[in-house]
Amino acid sequence: MIIAHLTSVHFRYDPRVFLKECAGLARAGHSVFLVVADGKGDETRNGVRIVDAGPRHGSRLLRMTGTVSRVYGKAREIPADAYHIHDPELLPAAILLRLGGKLVVYDVHEDYSTAVLEKGYIPMPLRRALSWGIRRLEPLAASPFPVVIAEKYYAERFPEGVPILNYPLREELVPGESAVPELPPFPRLLYTGNITEARGAANHVSLLKACPGFHLFMVGRCSPDLAARLRAQAGEDAPRLHIVGEGQSVPFGTILGYYAAGGWTAGLALFPPSVHYERKELTKFFEYMSFGIPVLASAFPAWKDLVEGNGCGLCVDPADRAAAAAAVAEMAGGGAAAKAMGGRGRAAVEERFNWDREEAKLLALYGSLFRK
Predict the structure, then answer these.
(1) Residue 177's pLDDT is what?
(2) Whole-model pTM?
(3) Distance CA 355, CA 171 (A)
């Protein structure tokens, strides 16, 4: 088949869109295009022809109109058998493609109805109204298309959706030697990913006082304002707080390097209660597990099932500093219990939580579409 993936938001080498789905389909023999909007020009990589629709607009309103229009225009130039869209703002373009007799697949990456509730720059009454609207309109707009879902619980909104879960590529989790930092052998904790209050930044920093002698490495984009507040929260413990990514994005290769440095007591995800996060299987869980790092996470039921259900870490009330400190103490020192947690996590990723199985489901979906 000729398959065109379309995105107006994701960057061209996005792990799910490009590395997993597009490259996987290309390896299987399909002719794959990826239409992006970043202004970096056309290229071919990993067997995928990347088509640039020009830089996306900084304004959200212009992105949802002008950028979408340009992506749609590029899509119409590709004689594809199927168009695979990755952003809800592209649903109007998807409907136009479908009305033109084209096959369209909608890939649901996020629970957008709860994601909007996390947008602090939108007044709360408007957030609630938007959440209500998205929850009802998105499934309706996507109803003419086969749907792919990145999380199992999205099936509540898309009952016919095919779960293609966002598990890691095993070959992706291999850092280059130069990417591995040399870290002193003091006891240390790790958090990776965007650093925000909604993702537990304050809970993670509070461990510095609760766990004397431990250093905390937070590797991910962090606004300078939040970084200053976190250092103020740490107070006299601030020298043991290491923020890698203040005011800038952190390449995934850098994050892999920190994983590979070894010596981590735990990988953290002590998020406060949130309807947006509490049912997600965070990608960072599987990354921690891949490197044999025990996981310390919030005791949300879904997270507890994944982490403690697979024996690869511990879950606590994220607001209970004493419980979190006790969990760190249980994992500390590289003892047999901590090593067993790390080993079970690594084995679980090797056996079940990896992209190989998900890619097979994606190829089967396209096989069925091809037969139809």
Answers:
(1) 67
(2) 0.89
(3) 10
The string of pLDDT tens digits covering residues 142-171 is 999 999 999 999 999 999 999 999 999 888
In the chain, the amino acid numbered 51 is V
Closest CA to 210 of 318, 340, 342: 318
Q: Could you tell me if 12 and 34 are in contact, meaning their C-beta atoms sit under 8 angstroms apart?
A: yes
Altogether, the residues listed in the chain come to a count of: 372
Could you tell me the CA-to-CA distances from 130 to 7, 211, 278, 338, 349 in Å, in that order?
22, 41, 20, 44, 37
* Angstrom distance (rounded) from CA 244 to CA 250: 8
Model confidence pLDDT, tens digit, residues 98-145: 999 999 999 999 999 999 988 877 888 999 999 999 999 999 999 999
178 pLDDT higher than 70? no
Residue 367 has pLDDT above 80, yes or no: yes
Helices 336-351 and 283-290 sit at what angle, rounded to 10 degrees? 110
| Burial class (CB within 10 angstroms; exposed 0-12, middle 13-18, buried 19+) of 368 | exposed
Q: What distance in Å separates the CA atoms of residue 133 and residue 296, rounded to the nearest whole number?
A: 35
What's the sign of the alpha-carbon dihedral 142, 164, 153, 156? Answer: positive
Sheet order of strands, 103-108 included: 43-45, 48-52, 31-36, 2-6, 82-85, 103-108, 147-149, 162-163
Burial of 247 (0-12, 13-18, 19+ CB in 10 A): exposed
How far is the C-alpha of 262 from the C-alpha of 45, rounded, in Å?
32
Distance CA(3)–CA(19), nearest Å, equals 15
Helix (H/G/I), strand (E/B), else coil: 307: helix
Among candidate residues 172, 225, 175, the one with its CA nearest the CA of residue 195: 225
Phi, psi dihedral angles at 168 (to 5 degrees): -75, 150
Amino acid at 146: P
Q: CA-to-CA distance for 58 and 38, rounded, in angstroms?
A: 11
